[in-house]
């Protein structure tokens, strides 16, 4: 692939694939509303364009992590229903109200501040409540459910939704999933008639028992693997091509990269890419003589990384391309695409697809392709 001169790497986001993924998940969750998690700049794809495409596909409920992200969704999709996962930031209630953002309340302090603002303005502004059923992150403790119920009943207030979050949904057979499901069911007995939400992408795929009234897919929307050990059914959304800046010959015994951790076992041909950990190509994708690293695709063939990944460059062994198939400087190497996807790169780096996607903040142009504006159907 030839890259446009002067633009460096090129990140492409397929909005049509994003829309198709949402619709596919919406069919699986039939009977429950399907939201869309767009936190972390919509998993690196761009919160503005992703929100618009998801809205065009049929999404109406959006989940951001912070109020700033919520405001970005509001600007992109004025009629969206937007929940803020990190809850009510102290002193920020007026901002949430102005922007029509719903905090997901997770502590008594948050609840009291939000209720005080509702009383002050004589209006029951919407929110959601988060109960911790086993993550030990955000959330009311289970023994606070009765206290929360009594407090809101005294004021005649009701949340829009009660939710929790699964710790092990990527492992469907894990006993903790069933434990959390049971605990969440016990919480919901304190809030009869209030919609409930438990399932993320993996929970959505695990079974209808986890769906309740709303599901909250995230990683699956963006083409990432949600459930371990299963073939990923989602369409890839992101491709990334970066330029080759030099091709050089190296001799047996010479070392590559910082620390001299990779000595060549043969005469080799190397391609130096304008791409590094500053661009989201994780340092854990480095290779040495004791462990393999990541790969990139050059001229249709997966070529291994050699040596440590640098801030601005990564070195790839292209010897196997042969002497008559040498790429030219300026030619593109495929970091993410059809042959090597987000999860392939994650597996090679000892991480998860979430980290790969949310690390895509590098020095490359962002290009939106596909039709993300098709009507639902």
Automatic annotation (TrEMBL):
Pathway: Amino-acid biosynthesis; D-alanine biosynthesis; D-alanine from L-alanine: step 1/1
Modified residues (N6-(pyridoxal phosphate)lysine): 39
Cofactor(s) the protein needs: pyridoxal 5'-phosphate
Active site: 39 (proton acceptor), 258 (proton acceptor)
Entries under HAMAP family matching the protein: Ala_racemase
Function per UniProt: Catalyzes the interconversion of L-alanine and D-alanine. May also act on other amino acids.
Descriptive protein name: Alanine racemase
Lineage: Bacteria, Pseudomonadati, Pseudomonadota, Alphaproteobacteria, Hyphomicrobiales
